[in-house]
Amino acid sequence: MHPWEAYQGIYLHIPFCQHKCSYCDFISYQGQDEVARTRYVKALIKEIRSCEAPLPVSRGATIYVGGGTPSLLSLEELAAIFSALKEKGYFNAPREVTLEANPGTVDEAYLRGLRALGVDRLSLGIQSLEDSELRLMGRTHTADEARHIIQLSKEAGFTRLSCDLIYGFPTQTAASIEASLTELMALGPSHISIYGLSVEPGTVLSHKLQKGLWTLPTDEETGAMYDLIMDRLAKGGYERYEISNFAKAGDESRHNLIYWHYHPYLAFGAGATGFDGRKRETNQAYLAAYERGEAPEIEILSPAVQREEMIFMNLRTVRGLSLLDYETRFGRSFELDYGPETEDLIHKGWAKREDGHFRLTPLGMQYGNLAFEAFITTDREPQK
Fold it and tell me: Which of 145, 304, 318, 362 has a beta carbon 3.0–4.6 Å from 141's, enabling a disulfide?
């Protein structure tokens, strides 16, 4: 069986947070009390138990608990969710179990409890190690609390730690980014995700920029930040394996690679989107609608869209697109389907053919979204 013929991962969405960050447009709700969380967990477990997956779930399928801030749930609530997955046979010797956590939301006992539940990887929302930047971002933690959670996680037995940083935020400079990154690498996480700021409509950040209250760094300044980040991470032993992700050898995110390799995955929770290779199902985002069990939105993907999505998702990775995988999956030649597009990217120095793969160069990764546009279509069938 090919990996795209079975679900390779399971995503669980926990849409609660202490405070909405200024840049965030994720599906999350702040200020929810214990009653609301209990009600949501019951709905989540009900969805898991009632799932009738059209594909088999692979033995070893990864588990990823994201949000929001999943570490706001109690250990008992997480145990109940994992128990429901086990009842369905979905929690079956997973290759990786990741939980997102924010500084200030956990203590050592909680972290040891996560290890006992089978969580073997933490994704920590650090974002910066400069207090002034954290306040502007709307983060609820301090730099000291960020340092503390990394140390606590190690003491609790987590050898696989991922930390996020953002660059390009108002008031950030190349010097402040260098300071945060240098200190973070010294703290020793095995994985670092670096995200260039994206201004999303409806966020506090967008409002502040429109009002002229905040100003973004210039393109030249963000370019300098990018170059510095690439240089420091490489010198620090973090190997780039995807546009925004860097890891010590063997510590890549196995779950996120499922997305980038365009393999199927199940998803549970409000606003969560699952993918079976031919269609996407997105749950209702509003808590009340989700908890009532209202039907998800379904997007049927045409064969052309499937091909193009597989291309640009794989191009996010350093590995690139396997030409053999493309031909086996679709019964077509990538070179015949996209000859002019590939030649144009190669001519620009943004891509290359190598070892049976088509992949972006470092320059192509810097301009990834522009490179992906060569493969994006509007040929989408209406929702049903």
Answer: 145
DSSP label of 57: E
- For the chain, the straight-line distance linking the first and the last C-alpha, in angstroms and rounded, comes to 29
Residue, of 328 and 31, whose pLDDT is higher: 328
Cβ partners under 8 Å of residue 120, min gap 6: 96, 97, 98, 158, 160
CA–CA separation, 18 and 105 (whole Å):
9
- The pLDDT confidence band at residue 384, using thresholds 50, 70 and 90, is very low
Please give the Cα distance from 195 to 228 (Å, whole number): 14
- Name the β-bridge partners of 317: 242
Query: What pLDDT score was predicted for residue 30?
Result: 83
> Of how many residues is the chain composed?
384
Q: Does residue 379 have a pLDDT over 60? A: no
Q: Which residue has 């939105």 as its token pair?
A: 297
Q: What is the mean pLDDT of residues 128-147?
A: 94
Tokens 């109690």 — which residue? 74
| Secondary element (H or E) of residue 275 | strand 273-275
User: What pLDDT is attached to residue 380?
Assistant: 40
Cα(259)–Cα(265) distance, integer angstroms:
8
Return d(Cα 380, Cα 176) in angstroms, integer.
43
Q: What is the pTM of this model?
A: 0.94
Distances (CA, A) of 80 to 49, 86, 92: 12, 10, 16
Which two structure tokens, joined as six digits, stand for 207? Answer: 């409002």
| Among the listed residues 270, 251, 234, the one whose alpha carbon sits nearest the alpha carbon of residue 11 | 270
Confidence of residue 383 (pLDDT cuts 50, 70, 90): very low
Q: How far is CA 265 from the centre of its chain?
A: 13
DSSP H helical segments within the chain, as ranges?
34-50, 75-88, 108-117, 131-137, 143-155, 174-187, 204-210, 219-235, 254-260, 287-291, 303-314, 323-330, 334-348, 362-366, 368-372
Q: Angle CA(271)–CA(277)–CA(278) in degrees, nearest 5?
A: 85
Whether the Cβ atoms of residue 267 and residue 283 lie closer than 8 Å to each other: yes
d(CA 246, CA 239): 5
Distance CA 341, CA 338 (A): 5
Spatial separation of the C-alpha atoms in residues 172 and 181, rounded to whole Å: 13
Residue 305: name the closest of 246, 378, 241 by CA: 378
> pLDDT by residue (tens digit) across 159-215?
999 999 999 999 999 999 999 999 999 999 999 999 999 999 999 999 999 999 999
